[in-house]
Amino acid sequence: MALTVGQLAPNFTLADTFRKQVSLSDFAGKKVAIFFYPGAFTAVCEKEMCTIRDAMADFDAGGAQVIGISVDAPASNKAFADKNGLKFPLLSDYTRYVSAQYCGLINNFAGLIGLTASNRAAFVLDGAGKVTYAWVSENPGVEPPYEEVKKALA
């Protein structure tokens, strides 16, 4: 079950690419755009994160903190961020707890039995942590509607 507009987003604490603990509550009072992606170094995820990277001026103009979340280990997310010049936090939900709460999980991702990843999803939270925009894909090959996310931040 995914979060929906109007709900209060559950707080979380996850490791970033430097294994530093980052909590959603660290961004209290600020709009937050959260992008869940199934896996670092996969073609669609790389395209998505680079599209977000290239649109950072739009996100900054909307006053938003951008966060990427996947089930990948911190070291994988760090290599992914370094390769693609990603300057926003990539957080590691290796227990899959936050993904399950926010957007649900894909079992047997990419046809690999036992591999469980986050659904691809985008959420915008207001400064109080309330969901003002929610999008969860049924298909991991579909990128988020970036213009809708930007509009939700405006």
Q: Keywords for this structure?
A:
single chain, 154 residues, alpha/beta, five-stranded mixed β-sheet, two-stranded antiparallel sheet
SSE topology sketch:
Elements: E1 13-15, E2 21-23, E3 31-36, H1 43-54, H2 56-61, E4 64-70, H3 74-84, E5 90-92, H4 97-102, E6 105-106, E7 117-118, E8 121-125, E9 131-136, H5 146-153
Parallel strand pairs: 3-4, 4-5
Antiparallel strand pairs: 1-2, 3-8, 6-7, 8-9
Fold-level CATH name: Glutaredoxin
Annotation, overall tally of beta strands: 9
Average pLDDT metric: 93
Q: In the CATH hierarchy, what is the superfamily?
A: Glutaredoxin
The helix count comes to 5
Output the helix-strand order. EEEHHEHEHEEEEH
Structural notes for this entry:
There is one protein chain. The protein is an alpha/beta fold. The chain has one domain: Glutaredoxin. About 30% of the residues lie in helices and about 25% in strands. It has 5 helices and 9 strands, in the order βββααβαβαββββα. The chain is globular and about 40 Å long. The model has no long low-confidence stretch (mean pLDDT about 95).
Summarize the structure.
With 154 residues, the chain is of the alpha/beta class. It has helices at residues 43-54, 56-61, 74-84, 97-102, 146-153; strands at 13-15, 21-23, 31-36, 64-70, 90-92, 105-106, 117-118, 121-125, 131-136.
